[in-house]
Amino acid sequence: MTTSMNHQVEDQMLLISEYYPGIYTQLVTEQGEAKPRRRRKKNKGEASSSCVRKRKLSAEQVNLLELNFGSEHKLESERKDKLASELGLDPRQVAVWFQNRRARWKNKMMEEEYSKLKTEHDSTVLEKCRLETEVHLSLS
DNA sequence: TTGTGTTTTACGACCTC
DNA sequence: GAGGTCGTAAAACACAA
């Protein structure tokens, strides 16, 4: 737990734009023309037919994954294979875990950035009000 | 219990390099 | 073509009523 806390602090010290330079522009398509994504078909194949249910990763597996994510958010294939064999997982699972983890991290960073901007905005509005009152008083 | 909201795992579609 | 993001399905989990 303490290590993941350290990673959280490290995370906060990095600017989100360093990792995702196009983070904001990616949200809006060019000309605002959003192409509707096609719906994913349900996988009637492997998972359901072979009764392989989605299972949660163990705490140890998650710990090791978090540790790796803390040191590097991107996953090269060599590292992916190594991690997968260490954890007894499919390399695909490791890749998916990293994808999802990056998405969660990005959301967290966005939330932090939003609340930071909101605080700045609020204090600016307050200052504007203060200055307006000051001008008002000096004119009357 | 069970209904409901949230989180986690997984994947398809699309994008970028 | 490999590996990324995005959006979403569905299982797993938490928890109030």
The CATH class of the domain at 58-137 turns out to be: Mainly Alpha
Assign the structural class, choosing from mainly alpha, mainly beta, alpha/beta, alpha+beta, or little secondary structure.
mainly alpha
* Assigned CATH architecture of the domain at 58-137: Orthogonal Bundle
Radius of gyration: 23 Å
Task: Describe this protein with a few key phrases.
140 residues, mainly alpha, Arc Repressor Mutant, subunit A, 66% helix, disordered N terminus, DNA-binding
Brief synopsis:
By secondary structure, this protein is mainly α.
Task: Describe it.
- Helix 1 runs parallel beside helix 4 and helix 5 crosses helix 6.
- By secondary structure, this protein is mostly helical.
- Helices cover 66% and strands 0% of the residues.
- It is rod-shaped and about 75 Å long.
- Mean pLDDT is 71; it is low at 1-52.
- It binds a DNA duplex (17 and 17 nucleotides) through helix 6.
Write the layout of secondary structure elements.
Blueprint: H1 2-13, H2 16-19, H3 46-49, H4 59-71, H5 77-87, H6 91-139
Helix pairs in contact: 1-4, 5-6
This protein binds a DNA duplex (17 and 17 nucleotides) through residues 20, 26, 35, 37-43, 47, 53-57, 74-77, 92-93, 95-97, 99-100, 102-104, 106.
